[in-house]
Amino acid sequence: IALLGFNACRQATPPPDMSARRNVTDELNRTVAINANPQRIISLAPNLTEMLFALGLGDRVIGVTSYCDYPPAAKTKEKVGDTLTPNLERIIALKPDLVIVTTSSQLEKITRQLDQLQIPVYVTNPRSVNEVLASLQHLGDVTGATAQAAKLHDELQTRINAVTARVAAQPKPKALFLVQDTPLLVAGSDTFLHDLVTLAGGESITVDVKGYPQFSREIAIARAPEVIIDPGRPENKALADSVLRKDYATTPAIKQNRIIHIDPDLTNRPGPRLIEGLEQLAHALHPTAFAAQP
């Protein structure tokens, strides 16, 4: 039945007007034929939604996921499911001329389905802070917002440079970044979160792993982190503190009272606000370096 429904949707989708299209290469090196100036865009990740709005393209966004809650205007857009399980039928019904996804959402299946329906899908794959800024420029190029993207890129790069200049001469505390505490998931060396810690003036204790793997708590403790970074909601701070102080009681981080709580929307979303997360993390890691900042 599901297959029949899919085929029915496929038959109902009108063929694209190839005369008004151009080829672009996405961040997985896929060639994608898109409208020269996409007007009906669906974003399947919060960071991508934030990028589109930051580029001044909010009026072209016709669909987002249920997790796309920033800026506030994003909440008014049509919902097409959550980030990991978007609803194909809703996407098709909105008649998008561009769907944007990220590899972190693991949407290979729906990407293939949309490809078969000749609905253009552009995939992003940022694995460092620089690549996040590059994704921003790529989206600008794809949507015709090249000038806006270049301006925003330069503004964000200036802020990054200001942070790295401030922390350059500071000692680098050994840091444990908690992607998730139970079970313990960490950020490996090929991730933008690892890069975030490095740029903020820290030294990740999980540099020897890749991606976001489950990690041994015993090994994490043995590596004696001097700082524990917990991207959690403010309302959960007290509970998180209690758990971390118990689980990591023997580490220098707990003995020196160095638990950093930071808004996960600023660190875990590889979008424009990631730079605000970098600034907050750098301030927390090296407060004296920013003490005289006007």
Fold and architecture overview:
The chain is of the alpha/beta class and 294 residues long. The chain contains 12 helices and 12 strands. Helix 4 (108-116) links the parallel strand 6 (98-102) and strand 7 (121-124). Helix 5 packs antiparallel against helix 6 (146-167) and helix 6 (146-167) packs parallel to helix 12 (274-285). The protein is globular and about 60 Å long.
* Number of helical regions: 12
Q: Termini distance?
A: 64 Å
The CATH architecture term of the largest domain is 3-Layer(aba) Sandwich
Order of helices and strands: HEEEHEEHEHEHHEEHEHEHHEHH
Number of domains: 2
CATH superfamily of the largest domain: Nitrogenase molybdenum iron protein domain
In which range does the helix fraction lie?
25-40%
> What would CATH call the class of the largest domain?
Alpha Beta
Report the average pLDDT across residues: 92
Gist of the model:
The protein has 294 residues and is an alpha/beta fold.
